[in-house]
Amino acid sequence: MSLEQFLQYVLSGVTNGSIYAMAAIGFNIVYNTTGIINFAQGEFAMLGGMTAISLSAFLPLPLAIALSVFLVSLVGALVDFAFIRRLGKPTVLNMIIMTIGLSIAIREVALHIWDEKVRSLPYFTGTEVSSINIFGAYISPQVLWVLGISGIIVAGLALFFRYTLTGRAMRACASNITAARLCGINTRNMVTVSFMLAAAIGALAGCIVSPITQTQYDCGTPLAIKGFTVAILGGLGNSAGAVAGGIVIGLLEAFSISVLPLAYKDAVAITVLLIILFVRPAGLFGKKEAARLKEF
Amino acid sequence: MKKYFPIAALAVFVILFQAAASLAGREYYLTQLTMAGYYSLVILGLTLVMGYAGQISMGHAAFFAMGGYTAAVMTTHDLAAGGALAQAAVSLGLTVTSTNAFGAKIIHFSPWVSLAAAVVLTVSVAFLIGIPILKLKGHYLAMGTLGFGIIVYRIVLGTHLFGEADGISDVPEFGLAGGIAVSGDPASRVQNYYIAAVMVILTITLLLNLVDSRIGRALRSIHGNEEAAGAMGVDTSRYKLSVFVLSAVFACVAGVFLTHFNGGIGPSQADVMKSVSFVAIVAVGGMANLWGALVMGVVLNFLSLRGYFGSYDELVFGGILIFIMLFFPDGLLRAENFRGPAALLDRARSVLKRGGDNGIS
Amino acid sequence: MGFLEVSGLSRSFSGLRAVDGVSFSVEKNAIKAVIGPNGAGKTTLFNLIAGALEADSGEIRIRGAAIQNLPPFRIARHGVSRTFQNIKLFSHMTVLENVMVGRHIRTRAGMGQAMLRLPGSRAEEREIRERSMEMLSFMGIAGLADQEATSLAFGKQRILEIARAMATEPELLLLDEPAAGLNMYETAQISDLITKIRERGVTVLVIEHDMSLVMNISDDIVVLASGKKIAEGKPMEIQKNEEVIRVYLGDEDA
After folding, report:
1. Which of A55, A147, B118, B160 is least buried, going by the fewest C-beta atoms within 10 A?
2. pLDDT digits over A102-137, tens only?
C-alpha cells in the first residue's frame, strides 16, 4: 500500500469516525443523566441534515445550519416533554422499545415530509470535485470541515462540562442524582437540557457530513448502531472514550475494504461490538462494574 | 384442564374464520393469516425467552432467516451436476426430483432433509452464540443480540449463494404426508391455512405445558430474581441458554415453513426491523403472556400484511410502541386493563400528569 | 470435624479486608449465631459460604466436602440454603410458586417431559405442590398461598423466604438477619420457627442483631469485628466476654 493510499484510508476513517463519535457522545450525554439509551439519536442527525437542506433553499448555508441545529434541539426538548417525562418506572426493555418507537415514528414522519429521495447539503467550500492535496492524498475540503467542527464540538463540550454551571450540574446528575437534587439542582430540567444538547450535536453532525455521505430519511438508524458501538467501545458514558472509539472504528472500517469485500464493510463495526461485549463489556476505558449494572 | 379451554376456543375460531372467509369469497384473507401464524411461532418462542426467562433478544429474525435460507438453498440447488457427495446423497434417498418454474427437472434435497439441516444449523449457532451473549445483561444483551442479527442480515444480503438482494425464489413445496403439502399454490390455500393453524396450536400447547411446570417456574424465578434463583439451586446459565436455543428452533421451523409457503425468501426476513417488531409484539402482548403474544402477533401481522395502514404502516407501528410503553408498560392484554373505561381514563390521567424524573437513573 | 468447617476464610474489597482469616465450625443440628457490629463482615461471610462471592483464600467444608468458590446453585445441591438480608422473593409469582421453586433441586422433570406432560412429570408436579403447601403450613402462612409474593406484609415476606429455603430440604440453613425490621411479636414467631426448623434436623447458622433472639435460641455464638473472629462460645460466655462488650459499646477512653 502506498503512502498516499494509506493516508487516504486514514483520513477517510477518521472522518467517518468523527461522525460516529458525535453520535456516541449524543448517546453518552443522555445516558449519563438518565440511564436511557436513546435509540432515536441517529434520527436527530438525519433531521439536522434534512432540515438544513430544506432551509438552505432560501437561507445562506451557515444560517440554515444554525437554524436547523436550533430546531432539532427543540425536537429533542419535545421528545423529553411529550414522552420521556411520561415514563413511570421504566424497565430497561420498556425504555429500549420506547425509544425504538420514537426512532421509527420520527423516521416515518420525515419520510412523509421529505419523501425517500437522497439529498445533500452543498459542500461548505468548493464543490464535489474540489480536492486538497495532503502528502499525495486527495481529499475533499469537506473532510477538513468535518474534522474541524467535530474537534470544536468536543473541545466546546469539555469546556462546557467543566466550567459552566449547567455543565457541572449535569455531571452532578450523572454522578449521583439524589445528591444533585439535594443540592437544589433541578434534575428534571437537566434531563431536558441533555436531550436538547444531544439533539443539537446530532443535528450538527448530520449537517457537516451530509455533503459526503448524503442524507436520506432512513440514514439515522445505521448511524445510531455505529454510534452505539463506539459508545460501548469507549465505555458507556465516557465521551473521551467515545472519541477514541470513533477513530478506532472509523479506521478499522476504512482499512477493512482492502481485505474484505465491500459488502461486509458495515459488518466490521458490529463484529467489533460483539467482540468487545464478549471480552470486555466495559469498553476500552469504562469501569468494570458499570458493565454489570443495568438489569432487565 | 381449564387452561386448555382457550386452545379449544382457538381451534373453533380457526375453523369458523375459514368457513366465513370461504363463504364470503375472501380466501386471500387465509393467506395473510397463514403468514401471520408462522410469524407468531417466532413470537411465541421469543415470549419464553423474554417474558419468562427475562432475556432480551433483538436478533431473532436471524434464526428465522437461517431456517428459511437453509431450506431455500437446499431445495433449489440442483444436485444433478454434482460430484461424488451429490451422488451419495441421491443414493441415500435424501433427494427428490421436481420441476422448477422453467420446466426443467432438478434433483434437490428433500424438504425433510433440509428441515433437519436447518434445525441442526440453528441449534448449533444458537448454542455457540448464546453462551457468551447470555452472560450480558440489559442494554448490552440487547445490543449484542442486535449485532448478531445484523451480521446474519449482512451475510445473507452480501453472499451470492443466498441470492444477495434478490433472495431465493422458486422454492418447491414441502410434501408432508398423504398429499398434504406446504406450498404457495393458491389452490391449496385452505390446506395451508390449517397446516399453519395446527403448528400454532401445537406450539402454544407445548409452551403452556412448559410454563406450568417445574422448568417454567425455574424460568420465571430467573426473571423474578436471578440471584435468589441461583441460591435455590436453579442453574440459571443453563436454563437461559436452553430457552434461547428452544426459541431459536421455533423461529427456524417457522422460517422453513413460511419459505415453502411463500415459495421463496429474501433478506428482508432477516432485517433488524423484523427482529425489533418481534420484540415489540412480545412487550405489547404482555411479556410473560403467551396468549397475549399470540393475539397481538396474529392481529398486528395480519393488519400489516393486509396493508390497512398503507404507507403509514411503520408510523402506526412506532406509535403503537410509544403508546403501549407509556400507558401499558406491563403489556396490553392483562386482566387489570379490562376493568372498564373509568379505570383506563384514570390511568391515562395519571400518565399525562407525570412530569418528574421518577425511576430515571 | 464439625458439620460446617470454615478455615482461614478471607476476602478483601479493594484493599479493605472484609473477612480476615475467619475460622470456626458448626456442629450438626446446632443453631449457631454470628454476631458483631455493623461492617464486621457477617453478610460477606454468608455470601462466601453460599457461593455468592469468591474467597481470596481459605476453605469451607460441609461434611468434609469442600464447597468454597463453587457457584451458588451447586452449593444449594450440597444441601446449603439461605435467605437474604434484603428479601429476594421472586416477583410476579405467588407465595406458593415461590416455595415450589424451592423444590427444584429435589425434582427432576425436564423440558421435554414438561412440554409433553408425560405422566412422570405430572405425578412429580402433584408432589411438589403437596410438599410446598405442607411447608407453608409448617411456617403458618398456608392461607396466603395464592397471593402475589411481593404484596405480602414485610414480616410475612421474611417467613416466606425461610419457607422457600426450607423447601430445598437443606442440611444447612443460612439465615441473614431474619428478625431485621420485625416487631417483638414477629421476632418471637421467627424464634419459634427456627427452633422448629432445628427439630426437623436442620443445622442453622444465623446472623442477627437482636440479642434477645440470639441469646434465646443459640447453642453457640461466634463474634466478628472488623472482619476477624474475636470470640466464640456459649451464649453465657459471650455475654461476659470483655472484648465483645468493647466492640459493641466502645472503649471508655475512645
Report:
1. B160
2. 999 999 999 989 988 888 888 888 777 778 777 777
Clarify whether residues C54 and C176 are in a common domain: yes
When CB atoms are compared, the residue of A89, A173, A264 closest to B158 is A264
Contact A105 B318 (CB under 8 A): yes
* Number of separate domains in chain C: 2
Mean pLDDT of C158-167: 96
What is this structure's pTM?
Answer: 0.88
Angle at A163 between CA A160 and CA A165, to 5 degrees: 85
Instruction: Report pLDDT for B254.
Output: 96
Domain regions of chain B by residue span: 2-308, 312-356
Say if residue C64 is in the same domain as residue C102: no
Range of the domain at C29: 1-79+171-181+203-254
Instruction: Name the phi and psi angles at B316, rounded to 5.
Output: -60, -40
B355's grid cell: 412530569
Examine the domain organization and report whether C75 and C97 are in the same domain. Answer: no
pLDDT of the residue at B218: 94
Residues ≥6 apart with Cβ < 8 Å to A290 = A235, A236, A237, A282
Query: Within the 298-317 window of chain B, which residues sit less than 8 Å (CB to CB) from chain A?
Result: 311-312, 314-315, 317
**CB within 8 Å: A270 and B151:** yes
Which sequence spans correspond to the domains of chain A?
8-119+142-293
Q: Are residues C52 and C175 in the same domain?
A: yes
Residue C30, domain member (yes or no): yes
Q: Residue A243: which residues within 8 A CB-CB, separation 6 or more? A: A21, A25, A154, A234
Q: Which residues, in sequence order, are CB contacts of A287 under 8 Å at separation 6+?
A: A235
Contacts C111 to B, Cβ<8 Å: 210, 215, 242, 246
Whether residue C13 is found in the same domain as residue C56: yes
User: Chain C residues contacting B, CB < 8 Å?
Assistant: 50, 52, 71-73, 76-77, 81-82, 84, 88-93, 97-98, 100-105, 107, 109-111, 114-117, 121, 124-125, 128, 164-165, 168
ipTM: 0.91
Average pLDDT, chain B: 86
**Burial grade of B98 (CB within 10 A; 0-12, 13-18, 19 or more):** middle
- Distance of alpha carbon B330 from alpha carbon A76, whole angstroms: 26
C-alpha distance from C114 to closest chain B C-alpha (Å): 5
| Pick from A86, A102, A277: CB nearest B352 | A86
Residues C18 and C92 in one domain: no
